[in-house]
Specification:
transmembrane helix, transport, symport, membrane, MFS_dom, mainly alpha
């Protein structure tokens, strides 16, 4: 039998949706807005970095980043994010969500600014400095994943908790959109101010000296939204679930939530101490008890996030083909350096507006009606179907009359990623684990996702190269080709469906009911099978 829940936690569970919920969404969501802006804005300026630092005199085409440099510039922040997810996830359970939340934000603001101020006496020196600061920027961003999700889940009521956590994650879509818009504005202003010929007309004159400011401004802008929310993050009280169940301070938990909910809440010090002393609420992450109760749950959240991000981050494989197919981006030699940034930003903004953002908000609207399990299973199913539909008749899609069909199929694949596992893999780990391990387990799940992202972004960049050595991109060895890469990604998504079966449905249940923290000792066996 489940025992009575703490009054302060029950008050949060049954609270009507009110202003503090939306305040929490905005405060946590602006962190995710900044995360997405910082992670995805680098792709807007890599072509410009190639032109500035790697153009060779007399070459028929403008310079591009060598494969190893491109991998470092694009991937170092993902590596930092993985490390930050593990470290700050653990720290959030040790020191509290609020204390660590401020640290991650300070790191993000400082490293965003420092990225734009990267310097060096040579091209490689500047890129190395940029990579150093991008790693630590990623480290701060990594902390935002477990902390934002955990804070929102612990503040939310159980009726609309899924929508609130998904809304925080959906701010990622607006961050990607904002990155494109900032790049559009900055590049348009510089293009208007400094008229230069195309590379084909005059290679030397096509790169205005002032273009070096563009990538710096775009990267540094990420510090602004993060800095704006710092004051409000520090004003947020610690979550009642951490204060009561982990710090074991019933008085502080009741006091904080009385102010937040504007109601008088009973202080239950004896009950908090009694709950804390029970063996069911004291086992650690590496204990047999955790493995019995939550081992399969953790396997489910880590594996599905890992598999999802392999497919999700592989989208970089096809963007250049899609942009060229629908004539969004002309050949590099037919543009000057600044206009190329404008065209890339325009293409990415349109994709975010038409595919990325709507998918996120479909999840927000429907997650508490359809449930996490259904949305995740449906998303993986359609991603599998569309990947195979692109792969099996791949030669058909490469023909010019069929390219628009390829774009539509591609867009649907990533619509169902966002209206599917891309959102639910973020939501569920913040709900199903005990409060004392919640941030840690979310961090482990998210880090598994970032490991998948690194494989998706870079492993498939090499794998998708043509089997014919004469047709590979400059500097890359032959691979298995795009068709077989798509087939492999379809299989990855299918395995995502299978591992989703390990993830429990959290819809409509309290966090303590899901984690077993309000279950009596003789109810432990039953909880282990939930």
């Amino acid at each position: 039998m489940a025992r009575d829940q703490l009054v302060v936690l029950n008050a949060l569970d049954v609270a009507k949706t009110q202003l503090y919920h939306f305040t929490a969404i905005v405060i946590a969501g602006m962190g995710f807005f900044t995360d997405a802006y910082d992670l995805f804005s680098i792709s807007l300026v890599t072509k410009l970095l190639g032109r500035i630092y790697y153009t060779k005199s007399g070459a028929p085409k403008p310079g591009t980043l060598p494969p190893n440099v491109a991998a470092a510039v694009n991937g170092v922040a993902l590596c930092g994010t993985l490390a930050g997810q593990l470290f700050f996830g653990w720290l959030g359970d040790k020191l509290g969500r609020k204390k660590v939340y401020g640290l991650t934000l300070i790191l993000m603001v400082l490293c965003s600014i420092a990225s734009g101020l990267s310097f060096g006496s040579s091209a490689n020196g500047t890129i190395a400095t940029l990579c150093f600061f991008r790693f630590w920027l990623g480290f701060g961003i990594g902390g935002d994943y477990p902390l934002s999700a955990t804070i929102m889940s612990e503040y939310a009521n159980k009726k609309t908790r899924g929508a609130f956590i998904a809304a925080v994650f959906a701010m990622q879509g607006f961050g990607i959109l904002a990155g494109g818009i900032v790049a559009l504005i900055v590049s348009a202003a510089f293009d208007h101010a400094f008229k230069t010929p195309t590379y084909h007309e005059n290679p030397a004159a096509s790169l205005a000296p002032q273009a070096d400011y563009i990538w710096r401004i775009i990267l540094m802008f990420g510090a602004i939204p993060a800095g704006l929310t710092f004051y409000w993050r520090m004003k947020m009280p610690e979550t009642a679930r951490y204060t009561a169940l982990v710090a074991k301070n019933a008085r502080q938990a009741a006091s904080d939530m009385s102010k937040v909910l504007n109601v008088e809440i009973e202080i239950e010090e004896d009950k908090v101490q009694r709950i804390a002393q029970e063996p069911a609420n004291s086992f650690g992450l590496f204990s047999k008890e955790f493995a019995k109760r939550h081992g399969l749950h953790l396997l489910g959240t880590t594996s599905t996030w890992f598999l999802l991000d392999i497919a999700f981050y592989s989208q970089n494989l096809f963007q250049k083909d899609i942009f060229t197919a629908i004539n969004w981006i002309p050949p590099a030699a037919n543009m000057n350096a600044i206009h190329e940034v404008f065209r890339i930003a325009k293409a990415q903004t349109l994709i975010a507006l038409c595919s990325t953002v709507p998918g996120y908000w479909f999840t927000v609207a429907l997650i508490d009606h359809l449930g996490r399990f259904f949305i995740q299973m449906m998303g993986f199913f359609f991603m599998t179907v569309f990947m195979f539909a692109l792969a099996i008749p791949y030669n058909h899609w490469t023909l010019k009359p069929n390219r628009i069909g390829f774009v539509v199929m591609y867009s649907l694949t990533f619509f169902f990623a966002n209206f599917g596992p891309n959102a639910t893999t973020f939501v569920v780990p913040a709900e199903i684990f005990p409060a004392r391990l919640r941030s840690t387990c979310h961090g482990i799940s998210a880090a598994a996702g970032k490991a998948g992202a690194i494989i998706g972004a870079f492993g498939f960049l090499y794998a998708a190269q043509s089997t014919d050595p004469s047709k590979t991109d400059a500097g890359y060895p032959p691979g298995i080709g795009v068709k077989w890469s798509l087939i492999v990604l379809g299989v990855v998504n299918f395995f995502g469906m299978l591992f989703t079966l390990l993830v429990p449905e959290a819809n409509g249940k309290s966090l303590e009911e899901l984690s077993g923290e309000n279950a009596d000792e003789n109810d432990g066996e039953k909880q282990a099978s939930v």
